[in-house]
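S.,

As promised, the S-adenosylmethionine run. Input:
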Amino acid sequence: MGTRKGYPPARAAPARAGQPRAQAPNRAAPAGPLRRARYAVPVTGLYVHVPFCSALCPYCDFAVVVGRREQHERYADALLAEFEAAAWPERFETIFIGGGTPTFVDPALLARVLAAPGPAAEVTIEANPESTETGALRALAERGVNRVSIGAQSFAPHVLRALGRTHTAADIPRAVGAARAAGIDNVSLDLIYGSSGESVEDWRATLQQAIALGVEHLSCYALTIEERTAFGTAVARGTMTPPDEDALAERYEVACELLARAGFEHYEISNWARPGRESRHNLIYWTQGDYLGLGLGAHSHRQGHRWWNTRALQAYLADPARARAGEETLTPEQRADEWLQLRLRLIEGVDVAEAETRLARKLSTPTRALQDAGLATLDQGRLHLTTRGMLLENEVALRLLGATRTTTP
Ligand SMILES: C[S@@+](CC[C@H](N)C(=O)[O-])C[C@H]1O[C@@H](n2cnc3c(N)ncnc32)[C@H](O)[C@@H]1O
Ligand code: SF4
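Predicted complex:
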């Protein structure tokens, strides 16, 4: 559920729109400081995609290749060439090295790439538990890496097996310890719920173990079955059952409840943070900020213009400065619609008056209907999704976007 961290959204709708459609009890968004607009000013970010992994997970549709150690250095050179050719005019406030598995690659190569953009306020690296080492992270911390996002997925051994993961539950605390030992005080875990064989108790225990590790940030994603994956093929052939939507809704509610009780702020549909530890990089995507994406399949956005790279490794390596596979410019109307869709994902909600101006639509009728349906609440002019509304976020956005435009923006 929710846009996966670090990865620029590919299109107007969030890239990971795996919202279960099942009914769930209505709960209002939490009271507190997030009721005000906190994320008003977009900043600029750099996304660096590292496509190499030691094995291919059966649910993953990211641009990845297995192994290819002999091409890692050439790939780092290609990233640098692409960065130079992009001639991005501003400095970056955030950098996100995502994957693939950045920790599968020699840290000296990543350090070389990081030297090009120079320092940034938040520099995240994605890590897999089995390849998170203190020495490597220390070398990267010297180059400015100050946040680590570990793909834990689950603490239940049978769930890790069902997901085809190569790490064990014991690797997760070891990886968190390695990040701490490297001096990194901002650690996030990714978790996936809804795998086959996962009970609600397994999920509860996973959340409790994640909380007990004292991490600063958690992303909880519903397992999404993607067409071009082994799971996608198995579901299409009828040899695998897709996650049950009621079960996903129940898991989501458990996450909302346990994480709130543990003092995490729920700030985006799929993301929770200790106060002040939200992912500044991912907030760029949700606030329509500008970002440059480097590497295989990476997406970029600048003031309404979007472009994306090829997913073919050899084509990328052959000419990284001309790796663009497509581009589009959003109309002001599309940009306003996307603004609403993305803003709805944030727990701080949407200022209805601002939405009406941007969308050139009166929203009082759909807003009232959403409240009556228990999908949203209205508080001091801000529309917030309820938990049930978050489960049905795409539908809520469609209802608001379906309201008739009053003028052409
Ligand atoms: C593409 S991975 C890259 C990071 C790292 N290689 C890993 O596997 O943890 C980023 C995150 O996306 C999430 N993810 C990837 N595919 C998913 C899917 N089909 N359904 C739900 N979450 C998914 C996982 O939680 C994962 O940690
Ligand atoms: S989920 Fe992570 S480790 Fe698995 S194939 Fe995708 S990027 Fe690689």
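Residues 33-286 form a domain with the pyruvate-formate lyase- activating enzyme fold (CATH 3.80.30.20). The chain has two domains: 33-286, 332-401.

- D.
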